[in-house]
Amino acid sequence: MSLKHHSVPNLSYQDFPLEENEQKRNEIGNAVFGFANDFLNSLGESKAFNSDTHTFTEQDNLFQIGTESVELDDILKLFKERVVDAGLNPASGGHLGYIPGGGLYSAGLGDFLAAVTNRYAGVFYASPGAVKMSDALINWVGSMVGYTEGFGGNLTSGGSIANLIALSTAKKNKQITSKNLLKSVIYCSQQTHHSIYKAINILGLEECVVRQIPVDHNFRLSVSEFKTQIEKDIEDDLNPFLTIANAGSTDVGAIDPIAELSAVCSSYSIWLHVDAAYGGFFMLTEGGKSKLQGLKQADSVILDPHKGLFLPYGSGMVLVKDINHLLNANRYSANYMQDAETSDHYSPADLSPELSRHFRGLRMWLPLKLYGPKIFAQYLEEKLQLTQYLHEKLMELGFTIVCEPALTVIAFRYEFEERDNDAMNKAILDHIHKDGRVFISSTVLNGHFTLRAAIVSFRTHKKEIDLLVHLLQIKLADLSV
Ligand SMILES: *Cc1c(COP(=O)(O)O)cnc(C)c1O
Description:
481 residues, binds pyridoxal-5'-phosphate, 15 helices, 13% strand
């Protein structure tokens, strides 16, 4: 009996449209680069927030994948109208809401190269270069934070996942299991980011005792209250194991007294995690360095390069002071991974929940190599100065500063006499949103509606701050009549 031969079509290169030839690559590449240039060239006139663009309805099926192919021009048109021109514009220097992200062009090019070369950045064996590149970034940030030998880290998709990895490491290290869960205590403050509570929940720690320690008038965790609470908890036979401190809270930019908290934590064997997602990269500045000194004492720290290093969204980092703890919480093996386990170099896959991952090192490494870290420090210095400038202008206009800016977030509110001040300040916010050229956001502090501006974008300069001050002035004049 002879084997039946399957016939395989003998196709030429041109028969595979998913493998574009050079001419086609240039054609679609030029269209995309042209689009990017038009976008960037028009940023000066673009709004930071479009409140009245298309509303998306049930019938809005424009994004649906149909059966036919579509021309690139039509695709880019749809992308512009329905994605780029709708909602918030985080690429705008006028974006002063929440914590603005960046979007460096050179980082975008790094992403492009990462995707096209498609290196497997999760495993050393598969791409020693990509892993070494990530290591260099982790080492650079670790040294900036003040860590010395023996630390480890991971490039993550953002601060939330970085927080999750840090907390899972703390949980593993402090041996929190069903046997001691109900008696174990986590300390944080009212300024703790909600991603921490999410992580607590995902990690099955929601049945721990979670305590919010009171804060001072600048929303910094009170060390004496913290200490008193720990002592009381120990007396009550509880198991304090984890503290979460802020190095620049999202809400008001508060920096907890990290060095003092660390001293308390180490005397009670409590894991200290510092959330420096927003504030961490201010370590590159003189002013920031003195305020963030305690960072190096933390057992774990997270930072968001998509905030303080102006990268596009999708860049976070977790650092753990002792790499072995990170390894213990994440290393697993499998039979089909045996070839990859022969090297004696740690892989990102050993130090995080991810196996396959975005080669996200290149988008961070390329701008840092191309321009040098000093330029990033200068940009951050400018943000600190702009914040002081805005602070003065707000005081001149008669605003109450609800929290003194430690870095570049400023919380403020106007106290009109005998008026519903929550509604009045909301009206100020609505006015700014309606104009759209700059965007600020709001929060609730001490029970009151409060305005806040966060100056982080590499595209925010004096012009944008002056515009904000101008708009506030106009609205105040309008409301005081
Ligand atoms: C932004 C932020 C986070 C969450 O980070 P994502 O990158 O948005 O996931 C956590 N903590 C703080 C203090 C932040 O500013």
